[in-house]
């Protein structure tokens, strides 16, 4: 293993806020910047020192802020730029740095750039987006956007189509145009001048398109083929990313965590090598997408905890040599981890703590998603009318129109919809979980009377207090930050175990992923001589692991 430099962001603990659902300060049912500022003391209490804020830019909100109308403005429902400045200042006073979302693959169709681009084929900004004539009366290609339907939208005024890998209100920028790239770099410098620490880089592996714009092979009976086949991590993308790093990110010392779907393990060095990589950290998604059937449409596939462990460990082992991972189990695009990987019923507390210990002490910077630290669960949505996510609504409409039963699609959304991670933060047992004095923009999970911050803060054995202990432990021992990662018990689908080693100090994290007591012949021998420094059980069991048990053991360096 190559020894990596000590960096503040490696030693940090990050927290993601989805502003729309975090805290409403004015009673309109939508979270806002002042609400976040009001809760900074809570984040400080938890132990957070890096805050990732999902988009608060001015936006029509077709995709909840990821369709940006003005990179230099704040959406009215979130507040003002003065509110943003106040948040930055108050966070700084508490030792909390702020990371913004960098959405650079696309803008809103209401952005001034696109309005000018679509105004005429002769517009100076026509080439800032990707326009193509139709193909024999149809779309230029048979590409399907990530949210369903054609990836091309017809423009009546000019008689051409524009490309959108996501919503039709999110036209893709043309990164082949140098003026586009320079405009984005200028925007990055503007936000760095504001005092942010860097960016979570959204959908960045979509920015390069196959220059041939080919027709794609579609699955049987389907009109379209996934746009990802021609727009995800395409050859030549690294030229763009290296320029982005050299001209905008590196000169400002910006930290970056890249949402980089489509990047194979073999490319980790290109993306996050400490010397040569284009980003600071990388999010990979193989462990959270195990249940999706490859090539299917809203279809599940079988998986087990062994595959979950393998998906994480592959990247962990490679990061021993190159790069740094952003560690996560939840975010605004995924469901609640205790509902997916644990038991959100009888063993909710134990399994939420077990999952926390397992991912949090791996090699990388851990990210906590709002509500994860109190064990929030998936919400029982009763009908499609309660969903708000555009991709969920599009999926329901398109698949039911094809004849699939509504109950089948609702079952899928209950387990996969992005809205499962977007229900309001559960602060207390008061009306609407203390999130708002008004009517929330999306349903509050009815279990908020039991699962909330206030209850967690009162209970010294709560999920929240376990996260605080994890954070304190990681801060105390550098081996849990910089240590070499080695998987143990890798053939087991029941036990997750790994070792971290640094400067002679050793830690072992051992977890039972099941609701049963698990015996393992080598357990006692493997843990012999270790000091049990953290567990989700008060007492220690010998030679076996109780339901969803997690324990951390330490061996001090020899003197």
From TrEMBL:
Domain Glycosyl hydrolase family 13 catalytic: where? 16-422
Signal as a keyword of this entry, yes or no, is: no
Query: Keyword set for this entry?
Result: Glycosidase, Hydrolase
Q: Which Gene3D superfamilies match?
A: Glycosidases, Golgi alpha-mannosidase II, Oligo-1,6-glucosidase, Domain 2
Matching Pfam families = Alpha-amylase
The keyword Transmembrane helix appears for this protein: no
Q: Name one GO molecular function term.
A: alpha-amylase activity
Provide the GO biological process annotations.
oligosaccharide catabolic process
Q: Which InterPro entries match?
A: GH (IPR017853), GH13_cat_dom (IPR006047), Glyco_hydro_b (IPR013780), O16G_dom_2 (IPR045857)
Q: Which family does it belong to?
A: Belongs to the glycosyl hydrolase 13 family.
Sorted alphabetically, which PANTHER family does this protein's record hold?
ALPHA-AMYLASE FAMILY MEMBER, OLIGO-1,6-GLUCOSIDASE 3-RELATED
Return the protein name: Glucohydrolase
Q: Origin organism of this chain?
A: Paenibacillus campinasensis
